[in-house]
Write a structure and sequence with these properties.
With about 140 residues, this protein is of the alpha+beta class. About 50% of the residues lie in helices and about 25% in strands. It has helices spanning about 1-40, 70-90, 115-125, 130-135, and strands at about 50-55, 55-65, 95-105, 110-115, 140. The chain has a five-stranded mixed β-sheet with strand order 1-2-3-4-5. α1 (about 1-40) packs antiparallel against α2 (about 70-90) and α2 (about 70-90) crosses α3 (about 115-125).
Length: about 140
C-alpha cells in the first residue's frame, strides 16, 4: 500500500514537472517572437500567439495587425520571427499560420500559412523572400 502511494505521488510529480516544462518552452518561444518584432519596431502581444494541434499536426498561430501599405513587411516579420523562435527553442512545430488583420474602413483579414521547412529555408537564405512569398506561402 505504501509503495502504491509512493508510485502515485511520483507519477503526479513527473506529470506536473513535465507540464511546467512545456509551458516554459512555449513562453520562451513567445518571448523570442516578441523580441524579434520589437527589433523591427513592431509589437505583438502574448495574447495573439498560441499553439494548435490538429490530427497530430502542431502549428503556431499568430494574429497580427497591419496597415494596408505594410502588409508584406508585417507578414515577413511574422514568419521570420517564428522561424527564429523555432530554431532557438527547438520547439516541434510543423507550420505557422498568420491571421493578418488590415485596418481600413472595412476590416479585412488575410490568412497566411507556411510549413516549417520553407520558413527555415528562408532563414538560412536557401530561398529568397520573393520565392518564399510567391511559392511557399498559402494565402486565404
Amino acid at each position: 500500500m505504501k509503495n502504491k502511494r509512493l508510485l502515485n505521488l511520483s507519477v503526479l510529480l513527473l506529470v506536473l514537472l513535465f507540464s511546467n516544462a512545456i509551458k516554459a518552452n512555449e513562453f520562451a518561444f513567445f518571448s523570442t517572437v516578441q523580441k524579434v518584432f520589437k527589433t523591427q519596431g513592431l509589437h505583438v502581444s502574448y495574447d495573439n500567439m498560441k499553439f494548435v494541434e490538429e490530427n497530430g499536426i502542431r502549428r503556431f498561430m499568430l494574429t497580427l495587425q497591419s496597415r494596408r501599405t505594410d502588409i508584406d513587411r508585417v507578414m515577413l516579420v511574422g514568419f521570420y520571427a517564428s522561424g527564429i523562435a523555432i530554431q532557438r527553442t527547438n520547439e516541434n512545430v510543423d507550420g505557422v499560420n498568420i491571421s493578418l488583420n488590415i485596418s481600413r474602413k472595412d476590416d479585412e483579414r488575410i490568412l497566411l500559412s507556411a510549413n516549417t521547412k520553407d520558413i527555415l529555408s528562408l532563414l538560412n537564405k536557401k530561398i529568397s523572400t520573393n520565392q518564399f512569398v510567391s511559392s511557399n506561402v498559402s494565402w486565404y
